[in-house]
Design goal:
The chain is α+β, with helices and mostly antiparallel strands. It is 46% helix and 19% strand.
Length: 211
């Protein structure tokens, strides 16, 4: 039962992302066919990765990063003038195990909710840093932040309010807790400078290896 629940959680893809990307492809085919074909190929790669990744409850971090980078390349095609996405990854973390489709929904959440009002100058920064007993992962943006009435609820209940952050964040948090323990759960804070910071950690096990 637990395996079945995890597969359902990690198989969900935001339909708005899919529909918006398909609409972008339709537009590009008319005005820039080569670019439209390239975006079609990238979307196909993203979908294939998403389906393949659902076969395992944990995958190596290099596969998760390939999935994220494919998503970022699609988004930057659509929003090249509105935002930048930066990623910082410490060395020798490639084989660390992580639940599939963990990072992409968090980045998507920053773009679709935090940055939706920013026409220019928006950014998302992803950092994966080795600590003594964990890999510390953060996703930050310079958007509008999270309304205070939602801040303490995110990740704990599947929020569906239009101004909330939806089901994706809840799914990510539940998979992290189910597979890695409560110490891996998501935390959310609003940055003093504006925007949001989401953080979690992939812990070491007692043998000194990553889970």
């Amino acid at each position: 039962m637990k395996d079945a629940e995890l597969r359902v959680l990690q198989a969900q893809i935001n339909p708005h992302f899919l529909f918006n990307t398909l609409n972008a492809i339709v537009t590009l085919i008319r005005i820039d066919p080569d670019h439209g074909r390239l975006l079609t190929v990238k979307l196909g790669q993203f979908m294939r990765m998403s389906l393949k990744m659902t076969q395992s409850p944990l995958i190596p971090l290099y596969q998760e990063m390939e999935h994220l980078n494919t998503y970022i390349s699609i988004i930057q095609t659509r929003f090249s003038d509105q935002l930048t996405v930066e990623c910082s990854l410490d060395s020798n973390l490639e084989t660390v195990q992580i639940p599939p489709s963990t990072l992409q929904p968090l980045v998507e959440n920053s773009i679709q909710h935090g940055l939706k009002q920013k026409l220019t100058g928006g950014w998302v920064r992803i950092q994966l840093k080795r600590a003594e007993h964990s890999v510390e992962i953060t996703v930050e943006d310079n958007g509008t932040g999270i309304p205070s009435e939602y801040l303490g609820k995110l990740g704990t209940v599947p929020m569906k309010e239009s101004s909330g952050t939806g089901l994706g964040v809840h799914n990510v948090n539940q998979r992290l807790i189910s597979l890695l323990g409560s110490e891996a759960s998501l935390t959310f804070v609003n940055r003093n400078e504006g925007g949001t910071k989401v953080a979690f950690a992939i812990p070491f096990d007692n043998g000194g290896n990553f889970k």
